[in-house]
Design a protein that fits this description.
- This protein is 48% helix and 12% strand.
- The protein has 696 residues and is of the alpha/beta class.
- The two termini are 26 Å apart.
- It binds (S)-3-Hydroxyhexanoyl-CoA.
- (S)-3-Hydroxyhexanoyl-CoA binds next to strand 5 and helix 3.
Length: 696
């Protein structure tokens, strides 16, 4: 097998080339190749070496696929030390991204050149780890403790200009990576620049108060994570000692973290977010054209979808019911874009061009006659949707994709309104659509394969995380949400307070508890859902109706300053409203329920069991293709804690029999709500877990 690293001589300059597609990860063969190439350079007559990677990026880090397996020598920290201890200079050229172990290789080199547009970063915390190949020890020596800790705890990517000003790189070049390296190597030769080892540099003094402030910020932002603060401790403690000892401290912490469930969960999340777009049904199916997007409805959702498309370089025509509404929609989009300009995410000239050239707003459906894909984002009513699709069927060109952004309605029924059900699909965005990453791609019975491929192509263009879903009430995300929200309501009826439920789940790691979410989304949403489902509701179904009382009192959540919580100047994020407890107490009294105490652990156990059970049903019925699709839906769209990997990964971690035991126990008092998913029992019988269904 040929090595992914080769060494070649260019006169007095040696070139070490790494070629390990797709992202030049430092797999075992690369590590071996780097050591061999460094040795060849050491033994050669070349005086300086250029370390450069081929393809679209420099080294994107350690090979994550190797994590969790028995480590193979040589280990990356040793490889990097091997390069750094050479007694002839090595110039590293960064193009694309130098991430994690890739950036650590660059830090072990003696000089660094960035090709314009390149970015560096230490994103290990996103995998539940810390930099483990010298990053926590070398970066503070190069840029100072505070800047270094900020870089690796935030996992952000640092652009070339900032790299230059921080002293991370010595030069920026607009040449090809090889030419950039050869040019800098020529300078090393001409000026006789020496070997310069970062590990031998002292750490500049820093303010203890600045470090404490950073720690406090990180602790607040990364609640529940174990790796971020550990990384800071390792950087601080390690750099107090000689490099060789600091390196050991880092290594120990890295291996400790490698054994944690958080690491396993976050790596599951990493690969799952990529696997969702890799479906056998899409292989070899080219998507349809995607240049001109139509959007029906200019409310929060339609406006957000339009912004998302505009920012991704797509032409947008937005239709509203009259000229005034169309103007209002345009104003809303202009405001969102202005916010992007204010936050430095968009240049003012670019914003002006988007509004002038790429966005059309109109009240005439004929403006959609050459649209490639139209997304309907109107009021959630089947009658309104049917009316829209009948009109679209009349005006859209043959082959145009007709998409509904419905969050729960039957896409088959919508498709049947048209003469072209094969072109109809559900594209369920999450609000705010230009921010939220999840896009559920709802495939109806007659949706053509290239229409599905077009949905995934749109997600890619918009940098969204696409999950394929089948048709059912609420698809993957909202169907499961309804179940665990009901489980929460049951616990509130039985005696827990909504505030305790929220707190228990936020302590578990959720971004927000279900009642804080209800306040954010609007109490009216739950009210309307209950009304919609009332005619078909099974008499055995238990549900809480205090939300109806809140609705009737005009307490719609954040938008009215009152919901479950009070939102005012004193508590902009909300404080519990005792009146809500009175309303709930009245409901309990009406229903003859004697309240009891709940522990936080009991709340989490029951809530999670309901989520896992419904997730298993969604997989068992084929609504989600694999457990990982459920996990990604909850991670990308519903604030599920990433360090727990998603509900079905979490289920594997706590054990399926534990989950089934909770379900069975609850079923003793409510066998209507707690019907065990057949898939859970089947997996237990076969001695398997959810992960076994993710393979292949
Ligand atoms: C580390 O370095 C630890 C060290 O400190 C210490 C070690 C001792 N390994 O994202 P894409 C695959 S931890 C293996 O779609 P993009 C990915 O799965 C690591 N595979 O492309 C996908 O495969 P497939 C720190 C990897 O252009 C394909 O490459 N580094 C790795 O949108 C394309 O990926 C990171 O955390 C990897 N490291 O984005 C960086 N990276 O085609 C993680 C990617 O089969 N990577 N793959 O689905 C990224 O952030 C992005 O992949 C990157 C490219 C920005 C590089």
């Amino acid at each position: 097998m040929t090595s992914p690293v080769r060494y070649e001589a260019h006169g007095e300059i040696g070139v070490i080339r790494v070629n390990n597609p797709p992202v030049n990860a430092t797999s075992a063969a690369v590590r071996q190749g780097l050591v061999a190439a460094a040795d060849e350079f050491a033994a050669s007559s070349q005086k300086v070496a250029v370390l450069v990677a081929e393809g679209r990026t420099f080294i994107a880090g350690a090979d994550i696929k190797e994590f969790g397996k028995t480590p193979v020598e040589p280990h990356l920290p040793d490889v990097i030390d091997h390069i750094e201890t050479l007694d002839k200079p090595v110039v590293c050229v960064i193009h694309g991204t130098a991430l994690g172990g890739g950036f650590e290789v660059a830090l072990g080199s003696h000089y660094r050149v960035a090709v314009k547009g390149a970015r560096i970063g230490l994103p290990e915390v996103n995998l539940g780890l810390i930099p483990g190949a010298g990053g926590t020890q070398r970066l503070p020596r190069l840029v100072g403790m505070i800047a270094a800790c900020e870089i690796f705890t935030s996992a952000r990517q640092v652009g070339t200009d900032e790299c230059l000003s921080l002293g991370i790189v010595d030069a920026i070049s607009d040449k090809s990576p090889l030419d950039a390296g050869l040019e800098f190597a020529a300078k090393v030769l001409a000026e006789g620049l020496p070997v310069r080892r970062v590990s031998e540099m002292p750490v500049a003094p820093y303010e203890q108060s600045a470090l404490e402030a950073l720690k406090a910020k990180v602790a607040a932002k990364q609640k529940g994570h174990v790796c971020h603060l550990r990384g800071i401790d390792v950087a601080v403690e390690g750099t107090k000692r000689p490099f060789s000892e600091g390196r050991q401290i880092e290594r120990q912490a890295f291996w400790d973290l490698m054994q944690t469930p958080q690491r396993a969960a976050m790596i599951h999340a990493f690969f799952s977010e990529r696997a969702v777009a890799s479906l056998p049904e899409l292989k070899g199916i080219p998507p349809r054209a995607l240049a001109h997007i139509g959007v029906i409805g200019g409310g929060t959702m339609g406006g957000g979808i339009a912004v998302s498309c505009l920012l991704s370089g797509l032409r947008v025509t937005l239709i509203e019911r009259d000229a005034e509404a169309a103007q209002k929609a345009r104003d809303g989009i202009a405001k969102t874009l202005a916010d992007s300009v204010k936050r430095g995410k968009l240049k003012a000239e670019k914003r002006d061009a988007l509004l002038a050239d790429a966005l059309t707003t109109s009240d005439d459906y004929n403006a959609l006659s050459d649209a490639d894909l139209v997304i309907e984002a109107v009021f959630e009513s089947m009658d309104v949707k049917k009316d829209v699709f009948t009109k679209l069927d009349a005006v859209c060109k043959p082959g145009a994709v007709l998409a509904s952004n419905t969050s729960y309605l039957d896409v088959d029924e919508i498709a049947a309104m048209t003469s072209r059900p094969q072109d109809v699909i559900g594209l369920h965005f999450f609000s705010p659509a230009h921010v939220m990453k999840l896009l559920e791609i709802v495939v109806a019975a007659k949706t053509a394969p290239d229409v599905v491929a077009t949905g995934f192509a749109l997600a890619k263009a918009l940098k969204k995380v696409p999950v394929r879903a089948g048709v059912c009430d609420g698809f993957i995300g909202n169907r499961i949400l309804k179940t665990y929200r009901t489980a929460g309501d049951h616990m509130v009826l039985e005696g827990a307070s909504p505030f305790q439920v929220d707190k228990a789940l936020e302590d578990f790691g959720f971004a927000m508890g279900p009642y804080a979410v209800a306040d954010l989304a609007g109490i009216d949403i739950g009210y309307l859902t209950r009304k919609r489902l009332a005619p078909t509701r099974d008499p055995r179904e238990r549900f809480g109706d205090w939300g109806d009382v809140l609705y009737e009192k005009g307490r719609l959540g954040r938008k009215t300053g009152h919901g479950h919580y009070i939102y005012d100047a004193q508590s902009p994020k909300g404080r519990p409203d005792p009146e809500v407890l009175d309303i709930i107490a009245e409901e309990r009294a009406r229903k003859g329920i004697t309240p009891r105490d709940f522990t936080d652990a009991e709340i989490v156990e029951r809530y999670m069991a309901s989520m896992i059970n419904e997730g298993a049903k969604v997989v068992g019925e084929g609504i989600a293709l694999r457990p990982l699709d459920v996990d990604v839906t909850k991670l990308a769209g519903y604030g599920f804690p990433r360090f727990r990997g998603g509900p079905l990964h979490y289920a594997d971690q706590i054990g399926l029999d534990t989950v089934l035991a909770t379900i069975t126990e609850q079923a003793k008092s409510d066998d209507f709500f707690w019907q065990p998913a057949p898939l859970i029992q089947q997996l237990i019988n076969e001695g398997r877990n959810f992960a076994s269904l993710n393979q292949g």
